[in-house]
Amino acid sequence: MPTILVTGFQPFGGEKINPAWEAIRVLPDSIVGSKVVKLQIPVVFGVGADVVSTAIDHINPDIVLCVGQAGGRAKITPEFVGINYRDARIPDNDGNQPHAQRIVEDGPDAYFATLPVRAMTEAMNESGIPAALSYTAGTYVCNDVMYSMLHVLATKYPNARGAFMHVPFATEQATKQPVNTASLPIEVMARGLEVALSVAVKHKIDVTSESTGTIY
Predict the structure, then answer these.
(1) Which of 43, 26, 73, 68 is nearest to 168 (CA)?
(2) Residue 117 located in a structural domain
(3) pLDDT value for 207
(4) pLDDT at 113
(5) What value does the CA radius of gyration of the chain take, rounded to a whole number of Å?
(6) What confidence tens digit (pLDDT) does each residue in 26-85 have?
(7) How many CB atoms are closer than 10 A to CB 209?
(8) Position 214 in a domain
(9) How far apart are CA 38 and CA 34, in angstroms?
(10) Domain interval for residue 123
């Protein structure tokens, strides 16, 4: 049976929950015939990435999807690219606040997602779940994990595929935010992740029809 590793972060920035992990917790244990392994990881530079790397070594998954919170975004956003750069606006959960650092000193400047992120985005929208492709995973721990995970896959597990996805604030978090702050219910996020992962299992690459523009 194929295996999907899905990771979500612990709460950070003073929040009591992280919607990424809350949505992952309620995912089914099997998606399109693939076993789903769920893992919570720390919001700490380097450490979160190491936890993911160790899990990959132990589980040997076919697909890896790491998920994080992007408070302020209105939609679920699969990330197109992770960059080899750390620059923290706020400290991580261990108080680290790196600036202008490379993640992997001799690594490439960027890695592109190897899951069909365009098709995943389109499928979520077609299912009534607001989604948009993002071209920046930021420079905080989310990007740190995305880049590091893709580096591990590229250098050690070339047959495995991976990507990162951001989710908005959960509805209950928005009660403490300014009036125009976007949010989604946890159950909507979970459904979005399930739809996106179903596409990732079925399709290895984004293929676009030149005649219709449809993404498969």
Answers:
(1) 73
(2) yes
(3) 61
(4) 98
(5) 16
(6) 999 999 999 999 999 999 999 999 999 999 999 999 999 999 999 999 999 999 999 999
(7) 9
(8) no
(9) 13
(10) 3-202
Backbone phi, psi, residue 119, to 5°: -65, -35
Q: Known catalytic residues?
A: 79, 142, 166
Q: Identify the CA nearest to 23 among candidates 143, 187, 176, 148.
A: 187
Query: For residue 99, what are the CA distances in angstroms to 12, 23, 89, 102, 188?
Result: 19, 31, 9, 9, 35
Q: Which long-range contacts (CB under 8 A, 24 or more apart) does 202-209 make?
A: 202/32, 203/116, 203/119, 204/116, 204/161, 205/116, 206/116, 206/117, 206/118, 206/119, 207/119, 208/118
Task: Specify the pLDDT at position 216.
Answer: 46
Please report whether residue 167 resides in a domain.
Answer: yes
The whole-number pLDDT of residue 147 equals 98
- Which CATH number is 71's domain given? 3.40.630.20
Number of domains in the chain: 1
Mean pLDDT of 136-143: 98
Q: b vs e for 113-140, b when ≥16 Cβ sit within 10 Å of the residue's Cβ?
A: bbbbbbbbbbbbbeeebbbeebeebbbb
What is the edge-to-edge ordering of all strands in the sheet holding 34-41? 30-31, 34-41, 3-9, 63-69, 161-167, 77-79
Over residues 177-193, the mean pLDDT reads 95
User: How are beta strands 34-41 and 81-83 bridged, if at all?
Assistant: unpaired
| Beta-bridge mates of residue 41 | 9
Torsion of CA 133, 208, 195, 54, to 10 degrees: -70
Q: Is residue 213 part of a domain?
A: no
